[in-house]
Amino acid sequence: MKSLAIIGAQWGDEGKGKITDLLSLKSDVVVRYQGGNNAGHTIIVKDKKVVLHLIPSGILHDHCTSIIGHGVVFDPEAFKKELEDIKKSGITVNPEKLKISGNCSVITMFNKLLDHNRENKGPIKIGTTGKGIGPAYEDKISRKGIKLKDLLDYDILLQKLSANLIEKECLFKNLYDCEYPSAKEEADRLFELGKLVAPFVTDTFSFLDQARKEDRKILFEGAQGILLDIDYGSYPFVTSSNTSFGGIFTGAGMPGGNVDEVLGITKAYTTRVGEGPFPTELFSELGEHIQNKGNEFGATTGRKRRCGWLDLPLLKYAVKSSNLTSIALTKLDVLCDIEGLKICTKYIYRGEELDCAYPGIDLSEVEPVLEDVEMFKDDFKSELSNELNTYIKRIEDELGIPVGILAYGPERSEIKFLKDFLN
Ligand code: GDP
Ligand code: IMO
Ligand code: MG
Q1: To pair with 103 at 20 to 30 A between CA atoms, which of 24, 35, 153, 193?
Q2: Other beta carbons within 10 Å of 368
Q3: pLDDT value, residue 10
Q4: Which ligand 1 atom minimizes the distance to the CA of 57?
Q5: How far is CA 259 from CA 18, 94, 321, 325, 326, in A?
Q6: pLDDT category, 99, cuts 50, 70, 90?
Q7: 105 close to 151: Cβ distance less than 8 angstroms
Q8: Which of 49, 55, 331, 332 has most ligand 1 atoms within 8 Å of its beta carbon, as the pocket-test mutant?
Q9: In the 8-state DSSP scheme, what is residue 82?
Q10: pLDDT for 256
């Protein structure tokens, strides 16, 4: 196996960072291809915690080249801070180890201001991370975007920002009544930051093409999760990129090749941050208990994550919409010893039984059908209990793909591989 994709199979925060970190040990190249610093990927090594937002999780390994592909929306200021933070953790970052596409779309101050104003003053609250992600993708799609390579030429940058500001200025002045920088102030700020980013700017598409020709092992690190996908997710409560498998081909390129294995990461239960429907959400003390035990706080915004039972109709949908070939089941330790353990096997939706979700389904209308599951009490050091084996087997049978990884703690070592990857 020469290439592997890691995709969040739920609403994000499934433990992608930890799995990417471990599989980076066997990879030559690790690629981020969508999203931006709305992501928060946590890696815990002994007593050290590293949270990566924009930089691929492969950066922890000196033998890996980390790539930020052109599908990522790039905030140069957030990059500067992340670079400083990870260097403080003793991690080496240099242009040999990290390569960034000059074709990434830049998140400007205008994008961040729009995100904040819409969330605080607009008619619908999505509960975004406030990082300017949606507005930056809007600029890209409407062909007004600033590309990273534009930061290297002041005149072009000023010209593009001036054009970009014309429509937004009407919103800032007339709708949101807020302060905003002039095009010149923003050009000055971004041009300065561009000097820091310049040494990392590379033609990452050709780099990947060459890596594939040389049979190097490539790992694609998805951000967010399939239910936050702009096309497959619980729209409008989604992010603005293709978080599913398809995002790899538009956001990084895999010229002339396919991806050998697509590993979907799912918690043994479900969580969600931000607004939007959540069929198996627990509003009881038990939900709070899982939230506390799992330390379910967002790695980017610190917000509490909502918690609920594992939702098989959503996972089946994730398998279909991203061609998942196996599953990593994380946070099993949190679900240990939980009395009244349940799993959602079906929905009742507009009078019909459904065992798999589909694009456009209104999740706020579904009634989850919950089944009781036998509680497991594993310490994960000895053999798995019959109860846990039954829980895993049930998931495999329903999804039709194997569970290849079990994670039972935040530490690197708290993991069991049931299957070989990247061999
Ligand atoms: P990501 O965005 O998918 O990379 O996930 P996050 O880092 O946002 O959130 C996952 C959280 O769970 C982090 O705090 C991890 O350290 C932690 N974690 C990962 N796997 C496990 C696990 O198996 N058990 C427990 N208890 N924590 C885990
Ligand atoms: P990782 O990669 C969980 C959610 C936000 C909000 C919605 C839109 O760590 O799994 P945005 O700022 O993207 O416009 O917000 O998406 N969201 C995430 N939730 N994990 C993430 O990333 C997320 N990135 C965005 O909470 O509901
Ligand atoms: Mg996260």
Answers
A1: 24
A2: 22
A3: 98
A4: 4
A5: 21, 27, 15, 11, 13
A6: very high
A7: no
A8: 331
A9: H
A10: 63
Contacts of 70 (CB under 8 A, 6+ apart): 101, 103, 104, 204, 205, 251, 252, 253
Ligand with the closest atom to the CA of 130: 2
Q: How many CA atoms lie within 13 A of 9 on its CB side?
A: 34
Q: Measured from the CB, is residue 217 less than 6 Å from ligand 1?
A: no
Ligand 1 pocket check for 221: Cβ under 6 Å = no
Would you state the structure tokens that stand for residue 41, as one six-digit string?
């990927």
Instruction: Name the band, by pLDDT with cuts 50, 70 and 90, for residue 195.
Output: very high
Residue type at 422 in one-letter notation: L
As a whole number, the mean pLDDT across the chain is 96
Among protein residues, the one whose CA lies closest to atom 6 of ligand 2 = 128
pLDDT in tens, 266-308: 999 999 999 999 999 999 999 999 999 999 999 888 999 999 9
From 28, 41, 53, 333, active-site residue: 41
pLDDT at 257 over 80: no
* Best of 300, 330, 333 for a ligand 1 pocket test (most atoms within 8 Å of beta carbon): 330
Looking at residue 200, the DSSP 8-state letter turns out to be G
Residue nearest ligand 1's atom 16 by CA: 410
Whole-number Å distance, alpha carbon 298 to ligand 3 midpoint, is 6
Q: What are the chain's domains? A: 3-95+203-261 (3.40.440.10), 105-196 (1.10.300.10), 266-417 (3.90.170.10)
13 is catalytic: yes
Backbone angles phi, psi at 219, to 5 degrees: -115, 125
CB 56 less than 6 A from any atom of ligand 2 = no
Question: 260: buried, middle or exposed (CB in 10 Å: 19+, 13-18, 0-12)?
Answer: middle
* Spatial separation of the C-alpha atoms in residues 243 and 278, rounded to whole Å: 18
What is the Cα–Cα distance from 315 to 330, expressed in whole angstroms? Answer: 14
Q: Is the CB of 13 under 6 A from ligand 2?
A: yes
85 is catalytic: no
Instruction: State the pTM of this model.
Output: 0.97
Instruction: Report how far ligand 1's centroid is from the alpha carbon of 335 (Å).
Output: 14
Task: Give the pLDDT confidence of 7-28 residue by residue, as tens digits.
Answer: 999 999 999 999 999 999 999 9
Ligand 1 geometric centre to CA of 49 (Å): 11
